[in-house]
Amino acid sequence: MNFVARKPFDVEAVRQDFPILSQRVHGKKLVFLDSGASAQKPRAVIDAMVAVMQTRYANVHRGLHYMSEKCSDDYEAVRDKTAAFLNAASRDEIVFTRNATESINLVAHSYGRGVLQAGDAVVVSEMEHHANLVPWQMLRDAHGVELRIVKITDAGEIDWESLEAVFADGRVKLLAITHMSNVLGTYTPVERLAAFAHARGAKILLDGSQAVVHRRVDVQAIDADFYVFSGHKLYGPTGIGVLYGKAALLDLMPPFLGGGDMIGSVAYQNSTWAKPPYRFEAGTPAIIETIGLGAAIDYVNAIGFDAIAAHERELTEHALAVLAGIDGLQVLGAAQDRGGVISFVLDGIHAHDVATLLDRQGIAVRAGHHCAEPLMGRLGVSSTARATFGLYTTLEEIDALAAGIKRVQQVFA
Amino acid sequence: MSAELYQALIMDRSKNPRFAGALADYDAAADGENPMCGDRTKVFIKRDGMQVGHESRGCAIMLASADLMAEAVAGLDAAHVNELSRAFEATVTSGAADDRLGALNALAGVHEYRSRIKCATLPWTALRDALNGDV
What we know:
The complex is a heterodimer of chains A (413) and B (135).
Chain A: H1 11-16, E1 24-25, E2 28-29, E3 31-32, H2 43-55, H3 66-86, E4 94-97, H4 100-114, E5 121-125, H5 134-143, E6 146-150, H6 160-167, E7 172-178, H7 190-199, E8 203-207, H8 211-214, H9 219-222, E9 226-230, E10 241-245, H10 247-252, E11 263-266, E12 271-273, H11 287-303, H12 305-324, E13 329-331, E14 341-346, H13 351-359, E15 363-364, E16 366-368, H14 373-379, E17 384-388, H15 395-411
Parallel strand pairs in A: 3-15, 5-6, 5-7, 7-8, 8-9
Antiparallel strand pairs in A: 1-2, 4-10, 9-10, 11-12, 13-14, 14-17, 16-17
Chain B: H1 8-15, E1 28-34, E2 39-46, E3 51-57, H2 60-73, H3 78-94, H4 114-132
Antiparallel strand pairs in B: 1-2, 2-3
C-alpha cells in the first residue's frame, strides 16, 4: 500500500466519544460503515439534548418567562453557529427544516412556484438522490416548469458537454445538483458549476448532505444560491435540517407552510408574512434537535475540517486500494475527486446477500438503490452494496470489510 | 462465520434451480417485483396437476425460495397451495419450522432479517396472483 501514513487526529480518542461504537452485533465487534445513511452521535450531542430538557426547556419565541428566553437564546445561538459553519453572510440566511429533503422541497415549492415561471427549466444530474429529483418532478407537473437531466460520464463525473447542451436555449433558471454523490462518492466542482450557472442567468442549489460531513463548506466562496444538509449525517440528531439561501432570494419567496411563528400579523381574512428565516419556520420547531445540531457543529469544529478531510482521504485511498485487490469486485465510479462513499458489486452475488452476510460478521453496510434508482439504471446495476465512512472509521475496519467480503465470496464459491 | 441462512440447500437452489423457465403450456403467469433491490420473478402455473415454473433474477434468498416453492406446490390443488403459502409466511416471520413445509423450512432463518423476509415471500406473492389470475 502506498499512502502517506499520518495521524492527523487520534481516531481512537474520537471513537471514545461515540458510546454506540462499543456495542456488539451478533457477538461481533460492530464495524459501522453506514454513516452516509445516518451517522452515529457523540456524547456531546446526546448530553446537549438531555441538558436542554433537564435545565432550559420551554417553547421558543413566545414566552415572556425565564425558561422560554433561555431556550430561545440556545435555539437562536445555533442559527449563528450554522451561519458561521457555512460562512453565510447573515444568520437570516439560515432556515431550519426537518432535513435536506424538506429543504429541497421548500425551495421547489416556494422558489419554484413563487419565482420560476412556466416554461423555465430546472436541471438536475443523473446522480441525484431521489430527494433532489422527485420535488422537481412534482414542480414540473404542478407548475409547468421543464425538468432536464444533465448526464454523468462513466467515471461518475459531470458531463460538461451535456451541461452545455441542456443550458443551450437559455431557459434554465435553476441548477439543482449534489455536492457529493451518495452512491459514487464523487465531489462535484461546485465553484465551477456555480459560475457556469450564473453566467447563464441561472441559480444553483447544492445538496450538501454528504459533502458537509467531510469538507469545510463556504457558501460565499462557492457563490451558492441555496445549500442544504441534514443534521443526522453530521453526527447530530434526526429531525433537524438546514436550508441556506441568499437573503435576496429568500426575500422573494412566499411561505412554505402556514401557521404560528411565520407570520407578521394575522386577521381572519388575511395575514402578513414574517421576514426570512422565520417566514419558512411555521409551528414549534425541533428545539431539542436544533440544539443537538449546534453541539454537533461544535464537535466537528473542535476536531477541525483539515483533520476530518485528511482522515477521509486516508480512508478512501486505503479502501480503494484494498477493494481493488479483491477478484470479482467492482467499485462503481472512478471520479478524480471522490470521498468516503464507496459502492461496489460482487460478481454473481446480489447486494442484499452481501449485506446480510457482512452483517453476520458485525459489519454494517447499506445495500439497495440508495434512493438513487435512476442512477442504478444508468450504471447498469439493480443494486449495490455501499460502505461509507465517518470520523470514527478506522483503517482496520476497512481491512475487516475486505476480509468480510472474501468470506462472503467463500459462501458463494 | 454464522451463515445458517445460507446453507447448502439454499446456495444450491439459487445457483442451480430445478424449476427455472416458463412452462411450455401454462394457464396463468404473474410478476413479482421488489423495487427496493430490483429483484424480479415471473411465476407460471398450470392448474391441472399444479405445475409451477419461474423466471427469477435477484438475491439468493429469493431465487431459492422460488425454486423450492415450485417443487413444494407441484401436484397440489389450489386450496393446499394457499395453505402452504400461509404456513410459509408464518414460518419466515416467526422462525418456527412447520412440518407441512418440508424443505421450505430451510428459509426459516430469514426471520432474523426483517428486511429480507420479502425476498423469501416475493415468489409466493406472484404465485398467489397467478392463481387468482385469468385462465
